[in-house]
């Protein structure tokens, strides 16, 4: 049974945060390394879309769990969610990406766990 609608489902940033905090989904940040290090959601798992497109396996703590993909603006994460769904993963993405996340006042941390910024 899928927690999310199959296909290109999208969640608002607040919904994505709730699902990642309550453990019903893993937040998967698909931005590149410098973007991730500048600022990401606490508890998110990092796997750049470029690696995902190249066939990289999902990290062990993501496998078998529903995924909420996020990027900067929502384009790459939507592509990632579609790819994951095509491989049988229960996946959606965050509307507006980390830009919308930050605008909603949700926390962003940098690579050292300090206050981050969206790059």
UniProtKB/TrEMBL annotation:
It holds the Pfam family Rhodanese. It comes from the Bacteria. Residues 21-110 form the Rhodanese domain. PROSITE patterns: RHODANESE_3. InterPro entries: GlpE_sulfurtransferase, Rhodanese-like_dom, Rhodanese-like_dom_sf. PANTHER family: FAD-DEPENDENT OXIDOREDUCTASE, PYRIDINE NUCLEOTIDE-DISULPHIDE OXIDOREDUCTASE. This is Rhodanese-like domain-containing protein. It comes from Streptomyces prasinus.
């Amino acid at each position: 049974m899928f927690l999310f609608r199959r296909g290109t489902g999208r969640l608002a940033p607040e919904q994505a945060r709730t699902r990642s905090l309550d453990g019903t989904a893993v937040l998967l940040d698909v931005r590149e390394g410098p973007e991730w290090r500048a600022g990401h959601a606490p508890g998110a798992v990092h796997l750049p879309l470029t690696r995902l497109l190249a066939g990289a396996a999902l990290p062990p703590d993501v496998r078998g769990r529903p995924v909420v993909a996020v990027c900067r603006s929502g384009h790459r994460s939507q592509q990632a969610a579609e790819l994951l769904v095509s491989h049988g993963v229960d996946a959606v993405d965050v509307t507006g990406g980390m830009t919308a996340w930050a605008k909603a006042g949700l926390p962003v941390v940098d690579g050292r766990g300090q206050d981050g910024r969206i790059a």
